[in-house]
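Consider this today:
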Amino acid sequence: MSEGVYGEQPTGRVTHSLLRLSTAMRSQAWEWAEGAGLTPTQGEILVLLMQRKGPMRLGEIARETALTAATTSDAVSTLENKGLVEKRRALDDGRALAVRLTTRGRTAAKRAAQWPDFLAKAVSTLRDDEQITFYRTLLKTIRQLEVQAHIPAHRMCLTCEHLEASRNPKKTPHRCGALDLTLVDTDLRLDCGAYQEADAGTQKKIWKIFAQQG
Protein backbone atom coordinates (compact mmCIF):
# COMPACT_ATOMS: atom_id res chain seq x y z
CA MET A 1 0.00 0.00 0.00
CA SER A 2 1.49 3.35 -1.05
CA GLU A 3 2.13 6.19 1.34
CA GLY A 4 0.03 9.30 0.82
CA VAL A 5 0.88 12.96 1.34
CA TYR A 6 -0.37 12.86 4.93
CA GLY A 7 0.95 9.40 5.87
CA GLU A 8 0.05 5.80 5.22
CA GLN A 9 -3.44 4.97 3.99
CA PRO A 10 -6.16 5.02 5.22
CA THR A 11 -4.99 7.36 7.99
CA GLY A 12 -3.60 9.77 5.43
CA ARG A 13 -6.84 9.90 3.48
CA VAL A 14 -8.89 10.51 6.62
CA THR A 15 -6.51 13.29 7.64
CA HIS A 16 -6.62 14.84 4.18
CA SER A 17 -10.43 14.73 4.22
CA LEU A 18 -10.56 16.43 7.60
CA LEU A 19 -8.25 19.14 6.32
CA ARG A 20 -10.60 19.72 3.38
CA LEU A 21 -13.48 20.07 5.84
CA SER A 22 -11.48 22.57 7.87
CA THR A 23 -10.83 24.61 4.72
CA ALA A 24 -14.54 24.76 3.97
CA MET A 25 -15.37 25.71 7.55
CA ARG A 26 -12.74 28.44 7.66
CA SER A 27 -13.98 29.89 4.37
CA GLN A 28 -17.61 29.84 5.49
CA ALA A 29 -16.73 31.30 8.89
CA TRP A 30 -14.95 34.28 7.34
CA GLU A 31 -17.71 34.80 4.78
CA TRP A 32 -20.33 34.90 7.54
CA ALA A 33 -18.21 37.01 9.88
CA GLU A 34 -17.44 39.66 7.30
CA GLY A 35 -21.13 40.00 6.55
CA ALA A 36 -21.85 40.43 10.28
CA GLY A 37 -19.02 42.91 10.83
CA LEU A 38 -17.15 40.50 13.11
CA THR A 39 -14.24 38.09 12.97
CA PRO A 40 -14.69 34.33 13.39
CA THR A 41 -12.97 34.62 16.79
CA GLN A 42 -15.42 37.25 17.96
CA GLY A 43 -18.33 35.14 16.74
CA GLU A 44 -16.96 32.11 18.57
CA ILE A 45 -16.75 34.05 21.83
CA LEU A 46 -20.34 35.27 21.45
CA VAL A 47 -21.60 31.72 20.89
CA LEU A 48 -19.60 30.44 23.87
CA LEU A 49 -21.11 33.07 26.17
CA MET A 50 -24.58 32.20 24.90
CA GLN A 51 -24.04 28.48 25.46
CA ARG A 52 -22.77 29.01 28.99
CA LYS A 53 -25.79 31.17 29.82
CA GLY A 54 -23.86 33.34 32.24
CA PRO A 55 -20.78 35.53 32.74
CA MET A 56 -17.33 34.12 32.08
CA ARG A 57 -13.94 35.42 33.08
CA LEU A 58 -11.37 36.25 30.42
CA GLY A 59 -9.22 33.31 31.49
CA GLU A 60 -12.15 30.91 31.10
CA ILE A 61 -12.91 32.24 27.63
CA ALA A 62 -9.26 31.91 26.60
CA ARG A 63 -9.10 28.34 27.90
CA GLU A 64 -12.35 27.25 26.23
CA THR A 65 -11.47 28.76 22.86
CA ALA A 66 -7.76 27.82 22.97
CA LEU A 67 -6.81 31.47 22.41
CA THR A 68 -3.99 33.41 24.01
CA ALA A 69 -4.84 35.82 26.80
CA ALA A 70 -3.87 38.77 24.60
CA THR A 71 -6.05 37.65 21.67
CA THR A 72 -8.99 37.02 23.98
CA SER A 73 -8.61 40.41 25.65
CA ASP A 74 -8.45 42.20 22.28
CA ALA A 75 -11.49 40.34 20.92
CA VAL A 76 -13.56 40.99 24.04
CA SER A 77 -12.58 44.67 24.05
CA THR A 78 -13.74 44.98 20.42
CA LEU A 79 -17.01 43.25 21.25
CA GLU A 80 -17.46 45.60 24.20
CA ASN A 81 -16.89 48.62 21.96
CA LYS A 82 -19.55 47.23 19.60
CA GLY A 83 -21.97 46.99 22.51
CA LEU A 84 -22.24 43.19 22.26
CA VAL A 85 -20.70 42.30 25.62
CA GLU A 86 -20.13 44.06 28.91
CA LYS A 87 -17.66 43.56 31.72
CA ARG A 88 -18.76 43.44 35.33
CA ARG A 89 -17.17 42.43 38.59
CA ALA A 90 -17.42 38.69 39.13
CA LEU A 91 -19.98 37.78 41.78
CA ASP A 92 -17.60 35.38 43.52
CA ASP A 93 -14.59 37.69 43.40
CA GLY A 94 -14.91 41.45 43.30
CA ARG A 95 -11.33 41.78 42.10
CA ALA A 96 -12.00 39.83 38.90
CA LEU A 97 -13.92 40.88 35.80
CA ALA A 98 -16.54 38.69 34.12
CA VAL A 99 -17.88 39.09 30.58
CA ARG A 100 -21.51 38.68 29.67
CA LEU A 101 -23.67 39.27 26.63
CA THR A 102 -25.79 42.37 26.20
CA THR A 103 -29.22 42.17 24.60
CA ARG A 104 -27.66 43.04 21.25
CA GLY A 105 -24.95 40.48 21.94
CA ARG A 106 -27.48 37.70 22.45
CA THR A 107 -29.07 38.52 19.10
CA ALA A 108 -25.65 38.49 17.41
CA ALA A 109 -24.73 35.23 19.14
CA LYS A 110 -27.87 33.52 17.82
CA ARG A 111 -26.94 34.61 14.31
CA ALA A 112 -23.34 33.49 14.83
CA ALA A 113 -24.49 30.04 15.91
CA GLN A 114 -26.16 29.57 12.52
CA TRP A 115 -23.09 29.91 10.29
CA PRO A 116 -22.28 26.13 10.30
CA ASP A 117 -25.71 25.40 8.79
CA PHE A 118 -24.02 24.58 5.47
CA LEU A 119 -22.28 21.68 7.22
CA ALA A 120 -25.48 20.53 8.93
CA LYS A 121 -27.16 20.32 5.52
CA ALA A 122 -24.38 18.09 4.23
CA VAL A 123 -24.50 15.82 7.28
CA SER A 124 -28.29 15.57 7.01
CA THR A 125 -27.88 13.75 3.69
CA LEU A 126 -26.30 10.80 5.55
CA ARG A 127 -28.49 7.91 6.67
CA ASP A 128 -29.38 7.80 10.37
CA ASP A 129 -26.99 4.92 11.04
CA GLU A 130 -24.21 6.78 9.21
CA GLN A 131 -24.80 9.89 11.34
CA ILE A 132 -24.61 7.79 14.52
CA THR A 133 -21.35 6.17 13.44
CA PHE A 134 -19.96 9.55 12.35
CA TYR A 135 -20.80 11.17 15.68
CA ARG A 136 -19.30 8.28 17.66
CA THR A 137 -16.13 8.56 15.60
CA LEU A 138 -15.97 12.32 16.17
CA LEU A 139 -16.38 11.86 19.94
CA LYS A 140 -13.50 9.40 20.00
CA THR A 141 -11.31 11.67 17.89
CA ILE A 142 -12.07 14.73 20.00
CA ARG A 143 -11.29 12.79 23.16
CA GLN A 144 -7.92 11.70 21.79
CA LEU A 145 -7.09 15.31 20.89
CA GLU A 146 -7.95 16.28 24.47
CA VAL A 147 -5.77 13.53 25.92
CA GLN A 148 -2.91 14.67 23.68
CA ALA A 149 -3.48 18.26 24.89
CA HIS A 150 -4.11 19.58 21.38
CA ILE A 151 -7.52 21.04 22.30
CA PRO A 152 -9.13 22.13 25.60
CA ALA A 153 -11.11 19.53 27.51
CA HIS A 154 -14.85 19.63 26.89
CA ARG A 155 -17.60 19.23 29.45
CA MET A 156 -18.70 16.08 27.67
CA CYS A 157 -20.98 13.30 28.88
CA LEU A 158 -18.28 10.69 28.35
CA THR A 159 -16.04 12.15 31.05
CA CYS A 160 -18.85 13.08 33.44
CA GLU A 161 -19.55 11.40 36.78
CA HIS A 162 -23.29 11.58 36.13
CA LEU A 163 -23.22 9.27 33.10
CA GLU A 164 -24.28 5.68 33.56
CA ALA A 165 -22.86 4.20 30.37
CA SER A 166 -24.66 1.29 28.74
CA ARG A 167 -22.80 -1.61 27.16
CA ASN A 168 -25.63 -1.97 24.63
CA PRO A 169 -27.29 1.43 24.11
CA LYS A 170 -29.43 0.07 21.26
CA LYS A 171 -31.33 -2.04 23.80
CA THR A 172 -30.68 -0.15 27.05
CA PRO A 173 -29.90 3.58 26.66
CA HIS A 174 -27.24 5.42 28.60
CA ARG A 175 -28.56 7.43 31.55
CA CYS A 176 -27.73 10.83 32.98
CA GLY A 177 -28.17 10.78 36.75
CA ALA A 178 -28.09 14.56 37.08
CA LEU A 179 -30.83 15.32 34.56
CA ASP A 180 -32.67 12.00 34.92
CA LEU A 181 -32.55 11.42 31.16
CA THR A 182 -32.02 8.35 29.00
CA LEU A 183 -29.55 8.93 26.18
CA VAL A 184 -28.73 7.22 22.91
CA ASP A 185 -25.28 7.83 21.43
CA THR A 186 -26.33 10.90 19.44
CA ASP A 187 -27.76 12.46 22.65
CA LEU A 188 -24.34 12.45 24.31
CA ARG A 189 -23.26 16.05 24.73
CA LEU A 190 -19.96 17.77 24.11
CA ASP A 191 -20.83 20.61 26.47
CA CYS A 192 -23.30 20.31 29.35
CA GLY A 193 -24.16 22.72 32.14
CA ALA A 194 -24.67 19.84 34.59
CA TYR A 195 -21.17 18.49 33.96
CA GLN A 196 -19.08 17.22 36.84
CA GLU A 197 -15.71 15.74 35.92
CA ALA A 198 -15.45 12.07 36.82
CA ASP A 199 -12.36 10.69 38.51
CA ALA A 200 -9.73 9.01 36.35
CA GLY A 201 -10.96 5.50 37.14
CA THR A 202 -14.55 6.29 36.22
CA GLN A 203 -13.50 7.99 33.00
CA LYS A 204 -11.42 4.97 32.03
CA LYS A 205 -14.39 2.67 32.71
CA ILE A 206 -16.79 4.82 30.66
CA TRP A 207 -14.43 5.03 27.70
CA LYS A 208 -13.76 1.30 27.76
CA ILE A 209 -17.50 0.64 27.53
CA PHE A 210 -17.96 3.25 24.78
CA ALA A 211 -14.99 2.07 22.73
CA GLN A 212 -16.10 -1.57 22.75
CA GLN A 213 -19.50 -0.80 21.26
CA GLY A 214 -20.07 -1.48 17.57
User: Anything to note?
Assistant: The first helix runs from residue 11 to 36. The longest strand covers residues 93-101. The chain has eight helices and eight strands. The helical segments are 11-36, 40-52, 58-65, 69-81, 103-112, 117-123, 128-147, 200-212.
